[in-house]
Queue: 3 jobs
Job 1
Amino acid sequence: MYYFQPFILALELFPREVVVKNTLLALVLICFGFIGLSRLSCPNLFSIVYRNYFSIKFYDSTLNDSEKISPFTNTLLVMNLIITLNVCLVSLVHSTLEVELLMGITFGISLTYLLFSFVSPKLVAFLFGDKLLGKTLGMYTQQVFNLSGLLLLVLALLVLLNDAYKVLIQFFVYFTIFSLPFVKSIKGIRYAKVNNYRWLYIILYLCTFEIMPLLLLGRYFVGKI
């Protein structure tokens, strides 16, 4: 700790808001590094991510290499989503809490939501007794998360560099966050209809695994952004 004391004292010379903003900017730069590594691993990254976001194909052996992203690249894209989502929320949330505590709460809530989104396809596969359904929903989740993370990265940079346009940018952040379960639900409903699932099962899936988590997330942030 003795060696870090001069650095800590130097930080205290700057306004707290400047330190927080620079920290968030550093996190955004790290995310650009993640995207750069992803781009090296997958040269056609942006076209694949964009195309897969709007794809309605099911998970099967017909998926060719041009539609697939390696696990390493997917991991980097998920890390980018986690960080940029938190940067956007911390930058826009109005709270009386200490910044460190706010960042901890925001990170915990958003990470829980994202982890649940990845686990829920496995739960659905178990409840419905359909492994292909679980794999397809898991693929849809990854596809939606990949593009959403790229959009949030741009929005995070804009919200940090353009204080005057925060009110406008926050609506784009809302839209991107809302699209996480919405687009995935649209894809999931189409899969369920093609495979003749009962509407009761579809409604239970939507309410339990898509709508309820988003409502719990919104319950904390509504009125604070």
Job 2
Amino acid sequence: MGNSLNFLLQATKVLHNRNYDDSELKIIYDYLISIDNEMLNDYFNTSTILTYKNDLELYVEILKTMITIFESEEKQEYEKCGLLIKKINESIRIMETEK
């Protein structure tokens, strides 16, 4: 779980600073869509960063940022957005189920 969280934190930093190229976006995207429900549940049950209720909230925030990037005029990669939205929906179901 530690490496997974480190990756999320690094992705947040790269995306926030807008300091990324296409290969970095691909790495982040591939990682985000590879997360299975077991890991999503682990994120939900872990709270590493105090500003979030759980690490799943951080994951969803990164997904939303990636959607914004892929929806931009320069990217227009809507198929990727669809998969990212699917991951957001899976995450929301976990958050609602676990309330």
Job 3
Amino acid sequence: MIGNENIWKQLQEIVGAEINISESPKSVEQREKELFIELLDTIEIAWKQEHELYENHGVDLQGFSQYLYHAIETLVMLKYGAFKADIFWWYVLDRFDADGNLLGLEDENGQVYHFKTHKQFYNFFKKLK
């Protein structure tokens, strides 16, 4: 915000009054959705590349990357709570079986949810309590 202070002063001088600009709830929600999906994309790419590197070349980065995953896990838990963090990591790590088949998430009522896209998962995830 330091660089924006001059912009605020200039706008106030032009308008002649104090300016209060805030982001609409809809754009906040859209930005959160986009960042959530981008986070999932990034984790998946890193996870796949790490495992391909190990399988194809025997290079094990887990000693290094485990700390990064732990940091991400902690931030997800801080943002969403332990229950939702567990579901987040189930989606990232366990939604496919060993053969690559999509597995479902069963709720306490026996309903099973399958998420073909990150967007579908996000829409389910944001409704969780």
